[in-house]
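Q: Structure tokens for this one, please.
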Amino acid sequence: MAVNRGKRSITLNLKVPEAVAVAKKLVRTHDIVLEQFRPGVMEKLGLGYEQLRKENESVIYCSITGYGQDGPYRDRAGHDIKLPGHRWSPLLLRPKRAGARAPGVSTRRRGRGIL
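A: Here is the predicted structure, written as tokens:
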């Protein structure tokens, strides 16, 4: 709740055409769209960059995915709990050496949950 203080929010089921229409209406009066679906999902919903640019030609469209827009894992769903483990597992399996090692869990993410 602390990081969302003062923000207004709306929940839309983007599989419903009326909700897609609401999203497009919002884009007309807002500057930025931030989405976190796998690549191609927003296009299938009718809310891809080119589609939303027709509603607002100056829209800034940011796509955040777990594994990037291209590459071998692009179509995999990325989740907060899974990504640090996937990224650090090669480091944790290395033999012990002098120097810093990655922690076994994402302490930053876990600590944030207590705020």
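A few notes: The longest strand covers residues 32-35. Residues 76 and 100 are 30 Å apart (CA to CA).
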